[in-house]
Model the fold of this input.
Amino acid sequence: MLDAVWLIPALPLAGFLLLTFAGKRLGEPWAGWIGTAMVGGSFLVTLVVFAGLMAEDEHHRTFVQTLFEWVPAGSLSVDVGFLVDPLSITMALFVTGISALIHLYSIGYMAGDDGYARFFVYLNAFVFSMTMLVLGDNFVLTFLGWEGVGVCSYLLISFWFEKDANAVAGKKAFITNRVGDWGFMLAMFLLFTSVGSLQYTEVFAHLEEFGLAETTAMGIALLLFVGAVGKSAQFPLYLWLPDAMAGPTPVSALIHAATMVTSGVYLMARVNPILGFAPDALDIVAWVGAFTALFAATIAVAQNDIKKVLAYSTISQLGYMFLAIGTGAYVAAVFHMVTHAFFKALLFLGSGSVIHAMAHEQDMGRMGNLRKYLPVTSVTFIVGWLAIAGVPPFAGFWSKDEILIHAWSSSPLLWVVGTVTAVLTAYYMSRQVFLVFFGPERWRESQTVAHDGHGLTPDHEPRESPATMTVPLVALAGLSFVGGLLNLPFKGAFHLERFLEPVFEGRLAHLDVGTSLQWGLPFVVLGLAVCGAAVAWWIFVMGRVGRSTVEPELLEHGWYYDEAIASLVDGPGRAGATLLAEQVDARGVDGAVNGVGELVRRAGTALRVSTSGYVRHYALGIAGGAVLLLGYFISRTGF
Done:
């Protein structure tokens, strides 16, 4: 069964090729159904491979399938092959499973769009790239998938490129991610120089036998972390993700919540043997994650766009995952990655259902009391809210609090930062639920179309989405409810931890927390989160405090960080680039190249007078040269 692993990326690739050449002819909805079937088939194959892996001895659950040699270059040999182990198959399961649900959702959401077939071409290409990223058996193949999802992200964010804002958002995401890619590439160069291979199994075997100098390990780890910061939208490279909401909502759910943005977390978990030789790098990862989680949460409390609230929430939750990586809680990071995929995909798709019902209106200030009109959407969205807020028994409670316990064990200050973030999360997600599904029907009070053409007209009311959209919502709500069963903190119930243990071996952090704290801390966090939700109710349902008081312009503008970067790039950045172009490039590089050409031209012009074009002149020159050479040799021999 393990031999079928190649089909996991092959099916989405086949869907991409088929829809590329026949998508327009197939039209709507067949292009969508075919794209969905291909990804659904990929999920079924992943289940088969998972069953085969489970049948193996739990200490030998590693399988490598090599298809062919790709890059034979001296001592560098790169194969196209797949690594099947507990970590890669865990990633593949939720990537293909959630992607299939989002494909199904897109059949209804994208109905009537002029680019319907093209949308599914991009989605299938993305799933192919993402599966290559998580299944590749070497750094180069992972990087190939890494770049593939970056290109697909650009195409999908700017899918409605007729609007300038969408095109700019796509370019912003693409360029920002190139900064991270620079770090990934340098890390590969340094790793190959140090170890002599880029194959995961060979690199890790070398580390186990010979070790790695701490300075070298630190350099590789931090460079890889630069790549992870770009792809997983951590500070300071997070600023592409909020603008990425310009793409269709299924894109936000698929790429910017459940799959692509988890690539950085996956990469850091995959290279855990390297991180084991760089403890200082782990501290940096933990603090960057904790700061990002808190920073993004403070911005989310003042956003009015329904999708941007979730975008900043995604940045914050990814910060939790890096906090877990930095404290050595690799299983907790993967656990939260999976549960987050469930409830965040649910929340994004739920927001898409709201936007669909509200004629593409995204301002929560124009919504209210939608639970009356969208019963399935509202109930499932509330499930997602309870999951991300960390309310038991929903999935987010188990995964988030496992991270916070490890944070306490590492540094109580990290726990404080994580707990404040949890309280803010409960507050801003409650705020979103109350503004959208409760309170007065503000959309009815001013039934006018917004300045951008979006919003309900006076003779329309919101309606529930079609079954192709609500069925995925129900499925994801179920997963958000039971997802915590993957890794319950009870004796004998650590299913995910036991499954992943061979990947992390002895590098998992051991909790230095007493039993009372281990059980007490999560309920302290829960009590504080409930207080955060209560404050949101008091403000946004009871109306006891004006919104302007709790939503300062500073937070609404994201601490003006994006504007500051834009000013830096457009001011000193542009001036510096112009200076480099005019002085270094035009005068220096071009001047040197042109100078060599001019020197050769003048030398040729000067030498041209010595050539007449007559053969007799050349023969005479040759004869004269021969006489001179003969005279030289005679003088050397002493005759």
